[in-house]
Design goal:
Two copies of one chain form a homodimer. The first copy, chain A, is an alpha/beta fold. Chain A has twelve helices and 14 strands.
């Protein structure tokens, strides 16, 4: 009979198009991980319990039932249970207080962490699901402006130990739809290595504050005119677009007062976008610092400990 | 034997995804028209001559060979012949001087009208193919700021009898890709009638000059937050998006100095977009006037007369 360590936990980051589970030791170390493309949108009949059971079967076999902490779109309208958003400003304890739990057939308990909403956003409250764990994982002890790159990038302000406010930019979505469905999909050629010069040129155009140079809708046409003029070869188009769109996000964020030249911003993420956002931040005259790649796991674990300190959360 | 009127002409507007031919009387009246979806991108093997011959066969049968004047993407790299762009500032005579002709097997002559480029655009020269005929058709005798709605909307300045400069906005392309390929394609429902209130709300948000309200990348997320908050029903999403994007075009154009509140702008086009642009212009505090729907035919015809006055254009 195997002796299971007392305080193993499972951290679940179950999003729209990906499934990621982490087995975490009592000390907070990642012991094992399971990743797949089975996001919530591809779960047949909404049978999340069966998909989860199959995915973590090896861990259950080795360790028996374990507490599971889940963040992300799994707690949304299209997920397993729909949790109301916790309002900003919010501490990690506010999030812990608004978790909901479900007891599974095997006897383990899954705790869902709520997303956040920012009622100060105009014209509708802004929302996030999952990124709040990255912010908690970065830590709320120091005031900061944080950029979380993604399909829907978030800019968040940490102030006085709370997530004060945040705003969403559809940067990755625009990049993706234009890459796949504009003339780029016909003429762009994947470069052998990322074309950093093209990214920089695109970002510099987007960051320009010359009003005569227009805004995003006119700057995006530079892809076509640059291609037609022979100035942007097919291998450069995608990186130029990436620079243009990420640069536009920084310009919008700076115009909206999130930060100004010389300010420090913290970039938090775990994929290739982090390096691009770091580069763009420098081009924008900011002083970027990179947050921990495992911020989401750290944050979920911090909330888990607060949930356990509070006693069992309310069932869903 | 039928007696053909002496001065019939054919005006051809052959674009990427549509074919339109007009039979024009000596007085400039549209006598007949042929339209199809056979744009230049769907011409097998680039055999434009055969597609044209089949399309206008009834006119040739009735009237014999006729002079043909062609504008639009048919004169581009992906078209029949690639004409260099004429540079701005340009008069209609400048365009006439840079036409190129081709004699067809049946003995008729086709004259291609060049597009325009604006070398003052940053970072690459801006370009148009086809819209220059709409500007000529509107008339260059009065100074004006002209908006030409479309997949790639154009703003142009007419000054001292010339097309002085212009700039492109990828408004229709962004609207199209987001309508078809974002979450809208899953949740939006076509309304029974256009939702004018939703269009207005979207445009007002986009026209807001409150910097804290962000720019286009963050305002586009309002579609999702408004939907989540129950404030934007599925039937309103597409019109709200339309207002947001067209409003963003006006805001960019105004910030770039194309016009200011109180100014007159002329909207030229022949489809449903004209009414939307007229409405958005009013919301932006402008005084819009509507140009003739047949501006493209009028302009092509004006250039045709100048070509004929100059004698035969150079062969391609």
């Amino acid at each position: 009979m195997s002796s299971a360590p007392a305080a193993l936990r499972i951290v679940l980051d179950w999003g729209t198009s990906s499934f990621r589970a982490f087995l975490i030791s009592a000390e907070g170390r990642i012991v094992d991980r399971i990743e797949s493309g089975q996001g919530i949108q591809s779960v047949p009949g909404g049978d999340f319990a069966s998909v989860l059971a199959a995915a973590i079967a090896p861990w259950r076999a080795a360790h028996g039932p374990l507490p599971i902490y889940a963040a992300g779109m799994i707690g949304s309208r299209n997920g397993w249970v729909e949790l109301p958003y916790a309002p900003c400003p919010a501490t990690s304890d506010d999030l812990a207080a608004q978790t909901r739990s479900l007891t599974l057939d095997q006897g383990d308990r899954i705790v869902f962490i709520p997303g956040l909403k920012d009622p100060s956003a105009h014209p509708f409250p802004d929302v996030m699901r999952g990124e709040e764990t990255q912010l908690i994982g970065l830590g709320l002890d120091r005031d900061a402006v944080v950029v979380l790159p993604g399909t829907h990038s978030k800019w968040a302000r940490i102030e006085s130990g709370r997530i004060k406010r945040f705003r969403t930019f559809v940067t990755g979505e625009i990049f993706g739809t234009l890459s796949r469905h504009s003339f780029l999909s016909k003429v762009a050629v994947a470069p052998a290595a990322p074309d950093e010069a093209a990214f920089t040129k695109g970002a510099q155009l987007a960051l320009s504050d010359d009003p005569a140079a227009g805004g995003l809708l006119t700057r995006l046409f530079a892809l076509r005119t640059g291609y037609l003029a022979g100035e942007l070869p097919p291998e450069s188009l995608t990186d130029y677009l990436s620079g243009l769109i990420i640069g536009a996000e920084f310009r919008e964020a700076m115009l909206a007062g999130w930060c100004a030249a010389g300010d420090t911003v913290t970039v938090v993420g775990d994929d290739d976008l982090v390096a691009l956002y770091m580069r763009c931040a420098k081009l924008a005259g900011l002083a970027p610092v990179q947050g921990p790649a495992d911020a989401a796991v750290r944050g979920t674990l911090a909330i888990a400990r607060q949930v356990e300190a509070r006693g069992a959360p309310a069932p869903t």
